[in-house]
Every structure is written in structure tokens, then in C-alpha cells.
Specification:
This protein has about 425 residues and is mainly alpha-helical. It has two domains: about 180 residues, MFS general substrate transporter like domains (Growth Hormone, Chain: A, Up-down Bundle), CATH 1.20.1250.20; about 230 residues, MFS general substrate transporter like domains (Growth Hormone, Chain: A), CATH 1.20.1250. Helix content is about 85%, strand content about 0%. The longest helix is centred in the first third of the chain and has 34 residues. The relative contact order is 0.14. Keywords: Cell membrane, Membrane, Transmembrane, Transmembrane helix. Its main location: membrane. It is found in: Cell membrane. Pfam families: MFS_1. It comes from Streptomyces lanatus.
Length: about 425
């Protein structure tokens, strides 16, 4: 865990740059083109790349050294940002869409590779704690990135923001390169046979031989719809609460959400260490229900204190669900894990991208509460259905096999929890 904490630090630094850049680039596209359509197209290109790269990343992670892939992904993003920084003003607009492809693809590849590697880096018995540390690091990075982006751009300009972002990727790549960590299980067989077996397993999974696991992936895709709805609706809702200071509620919401994420990491880490058991599919379904319900309550027009409490609960449930979900997927054998996380990344990004488009259209006719309730209500319905199925299965099969830390994971291909 000593080396992993340094890895978390490096990942958090690069995540800070990504969140800073997310704001700076979107604003820069609009300023450079004067077109909302161009800004929307930039986001669409990046989201589409995220979706496609999920499938590609799963194959790459299964076939090649994950540490090298993560280092390469960070360096590619740094080079792309430096190219944009050094390019003449007349060429920058054209380079933006190439940058969207590079950052979208590399960020997904890095995420898939890292999540797939955690059981090999820290050991299967420590994966829940490690996932919690990553969630905490990224939550803090998100707050810092969003909070500082406006200041950096306003005080120092876009070039400084791009240079700072490139620097964070270089720091992350350097730290990861120097860390003596193993990111892939040692295998006696050939790589091609291993990749072929992973491909066959993915096909079987898609055909329904692992129904519970696939249901969890589907729920994460629908959670992406819900997440996009409250992201799109939040500025409108905040403006209706306080037209003179629309950023106030947004800041309160995200700060409280991040605190909830951190609290969830602390609680689940302590509980797992004390009990020696990892929360399984039932906990995932219940946590997702609480998370979606919390986000709906936030938009109900409550006074500030109850709304902040709802955001805190939603953030804690969000962090809890993320840790449980990733830890569950990490129980897959190493040769299958990369494909599984690639599939998950594509599903989550597809849900989020589709939700951004649909939510924006629906908000033209419906209130933020109606849109958020519809999307998150769908997630609650699916989670409730999964929970009922799991409870019925539990009565006939006994406790979930995957609830024990470090349990052998051959049951993944059978669709059992």
C-alpha cells in the first residue's frame, strides 16, 4: 500500500489537471469560435471517443503491459496539450478536435488499465481500500480543478491553464514510471491464447451467462443517464434559487458531494478491514437507490440545509456504490478483467453522453426536478428489480459468494454474486 499511495497521489494530480482542463477547454472553444455549436461538437467528439475507446482499451489492457499503457496515455495527453499551446492562433481551433480525441481516448485507457491493475498492485484482499483511496483522490481533485479553473484562466490565461494541465500529466507519468509496481498477473501461457479466451468470455457474458454482473453494468449505464441529468440541470436550478449568485448553490452541492465521497471511503474501508467481507451486489443495488433518491431530493426546492444534507447523502452513496462496483468487477480473473472494465467504461460513457443530449432537450419543456426525477427514477426502478432478484436468489442459494474478500472469482463467468 505504500507505493499505491504514491500512485494515488500521481493519479490525483493528473485528475486535477483533467478537471481544470475540462472547464478551460470548453470555455476556450466557445471563445475561439464564438459558436455554441462548435463547443457542443467538441464535447460530443470527446464523449464519442470515450465510448469507442472503452472497447479498444479493454483489448489493449488484456494484451500489453498496463503500467506502460498508463504512462504512455499520460504522456500522449501532455504532448497533445503542448502542441495546442505552441500552435499558431490560426491552427488552434482545428487542433482542438484532435485534442478531444486524444484526451478522450487516453483518459479512458488510463482508467481501464488502472482499475484492472489494482488487485495485482495491492493484492485482492486490499482492493476495496485501494479503490476507496482512488475515489477520495479523484473527488478532491475534482473540487480543486473546478474551483481553480476560473482563477487560473482569469488571472493567467488559457495558455497557463494548458501548460499546467500538461505538467500534471508529466508528473503523473514520471511517478508511475518510477514506482516498482506490478500491474499484471504473471502467466505461464501465451498472450494470444489468453486474449482469445478473454474475447470468448466477453461474448458469452454479452449473451447473458453472467446476468447479475451484466445487470450491474447496465445499472451503471443508467446511472450515467442520471448523472448527466443533474449535471445539466444544476446550473438552471441554481439560477432559479438565486439569480444574482447562481454559482453559490453549485459550489455548495459539489463540495458537499465530495465530502460525502470521502466519508464513504473512510467508512467502507474500516468496515471491510474489521469484518473481512466486501459488500456485494445487494449493497450495490441498495446504495445506487439511495444515491439516486438523494439527487432527486436535492432538486425538490428544499431550504439550503436539508438540500445540502441530501447532497451529502447522495455523495456518500455515490462513493460507496463506486467502490463496491469496481471491487466487484475486480474479482474477475486478470485475463478477463481488462475486457470487463473496457465494457463498463463504454457503457457508462454511453449513458452519460446520451443523457447529456436528452437532458438538454427535455429541460426546454420540463423543470429540473422532473428531468432529474425521471432519469434517476429509472435507475431506482432497475436497482429495485435487481435487489428483488438477488433476495430471491439468496433464499435458494444462500449468501453471496462474492461477499468475502479475496474469494476465488471463477463464479464471475457463471453470473453468480
Amino acid at each position: 500500500m505504500r507505493y499505491f499511495r504514491l500512485l494515488v497521489l500521481g493519479n490525483g494530480i493528473s485528475a486535477y489537471g483533467s478537471y481544470l482542463n475540462m472547464v478551460a477547454l470548453n470555455v476556450f472553444v466557445y471563445d475561439a469560435t464564438g459558436s455554441a455549436l462548435a463547443a457542443g461538437l467538441f464535447m460530443a467528439v470527446r464523449l464519442a471517443t470515450n465510448v469507442v475507446s472503452g472497447w479498444v482499451s479493454g483489448r489493449l489492457v488484456s494484451a500489453y503491459d498496463r503500467k506502460r499503457l498508463m504512462v504512455g496515455a499520460d504522456l500522449c495527453q501532455a504532448v497533445a496539450l503542448l502542441a495546442l499551446l505552441l500552435a499558431p492562433d490560426g491552427m488552434r481551433v482545428g487542433l482542438l478536435y484532435a485534442l478531444a480525441v486524444v484526451t478522450g481516448g487516453c483518459s479512458t485507457l488510463s482508467q481501464v488499465a488502472l482499475r484492472s491493475s489494482i488487485p495485482e498492485i495491492v493484492g485482492a484482499e486490499h482492493r476495496v481500500r485501494a479503490n476507496g483511496l482512488l475515489v477520495t483522490g479523484r473527488s478532491l481533485a475534482m473540487i480543486a480543478g473546478f474551483a481553480s479553473s476560473g482563477v487560473v484562466v482569469a488571472e493567467f490565461g488559457y495558455s497557463a491553464a494548458f501548460a499546467l494541465d500538461a505538467g500534471t500529466f508529466v508528473v503523473s507519468a514520471t511517478m508511475l514510471f518510477l514506482l516498482p509496481v506490478r500491474t499484471k498477473a504473471a502467466t505461464a501461457g501465451g498472450g494470444s491464447a489468453e486474449a482469445s479466451g478473454a474475447a470468448r468470455w466477453t461474448a458469452r457474458m454479452l449473451l447473458g451467462t453472467a446476468p447479475v454482473l451484466m445487470a450491474m453494468v447496465a445499472i451503471r449505464a443508467v446511472d450515467g443517464l442520471g448523472s448527466s441529468s443533474h449535471n445539466v440541470a444544476l446550473p438552471l436550478y441554481s439560477s432559479s434559487l438565486d439569480p444574482d449568485h447562481p454559482a453559490t448553490f453549485i459550489s455548495q452541492f459539489w463540495a458537499t458531494w465530495a465530502i460525502g465521497n470521502i466519508v464513504a471511503q473512510q467508512v467502507i474501508g474500516r468496515v471491510t478491514k474489521k469484518s473481512g467481507r466486501t459488500p456485494g451486489e445487494r449493497a450495490f443495488a441498495l446504495g445506487a437507490c439511495v444515491m439516486s433518491a438523494g439527487f432527486i431530493v436535492v432538486f425538490c426546492g428544499l431550504p439550503t440545509v436539508p438540500a445540502v444534507i441530501a447532497a451529502l447523502i447522495a455523495g456518500a452513496a455515490d462513493g460507496f456504490t463506486e467502490i463496491v462496483y469496481v471491487s466487484r468487477l475486480q474479482t474477475a480473473p486478470d485475463d478477463q478483467r481488462g475486457r470487463l472494465f473496457g465494457l463498463s467504461a463504454s457503457a457508462e460513457n454511453s449513458g452519460f453522453g446520451l443523457g447529456m443530449l436528452v437532458s438538454g432537450a427535455l429541460l426546454e419543456k420540463f423543470s429540473p426536478l422532473q428531468v432529474v426525477a425521471a432519469f434517476h427514477g429509472l435507475a431506482i426502478g432497475l436497482c429495485a428489480a435487481l435487489l428483488l432478484v438477488l433476495l430471491r436468489r439468496g433464499r435458494t442459494r444462500g449468501p453471496e459468494a462474492s461477499d468475502t474478500v479475496g474469494r476465488d472469482t471463477s463464479t464471475v463467468t457463471e453470473g453468480r454474486g
